[in-house]
Write a structure and sequence with these properties.
The protein is mainly alpha-helical. The chain folds into 2 domains: 60 residues; 66 residues. Helix content is 75%, strand content 0%. The mean pLDDT is 84.
């Protein structure tokens, strides 16, 4: 049997950074769902909206520790991932801003509600491009 018989068509590897994001993303989901049930005039909405921030702070602190402990190759992969994601994020914000100024907004409030997801996707794409380069 070939040595490639057990390999999958994709190479999925959960990294520590992806695992660290779990509590933050869970807090975001809880916050999003809870905001759908709270009355619009409730002052509790602000507290619920800010709920993910401490979890994001923890994620950022731990992720920076992870990057600082990484070897040179992993540091370079992360740098290239950010070098791809950051300009794409700027271009996305610029385009959404210009479309809004032009009066073209597909869904009311859509760019701000879902914009951060694009940044995460851009980072993941950049990380996969860099990993393939050094594989």
């Amino acid at each position: 049997m070939s040595e490639y018989a057990d390999t999958k068509w994709y190479q999925y590897q959960r990294t520590a950074g992806t695992t660290l994001a779990g509590p933050w993303l869970l807090a975001w989901m809880v916050s999003t769902i809870a905001l759908g049930y709270l009355d619009a005039s409730s002052p509790l909405r602000v507290v619920v909206a800010l709920l993910p921030l401490p979890f994001f702070g923890w994620f950022l602190w731990r992720f920076l520790q992870l990057i600082r402990k990484a070897d040179e190759l992993e540091s370079r992969i992360q740098l290239e991932a950010l070098a791809i994601a950051f300009p794409l994020s700027i271009a996305t914000v610029m385009v959404f801003g210009l479309l809004e100024r032009a009066g073209l907004q597909p869904v009311s409030g859509w760019p701000l509600k879902g914009l951060w997801i694009y940044f995460v996707v851009f980072y993941l794409v950049g990380r996969n491009v860099a990993r393939r380069r050094y594989a």
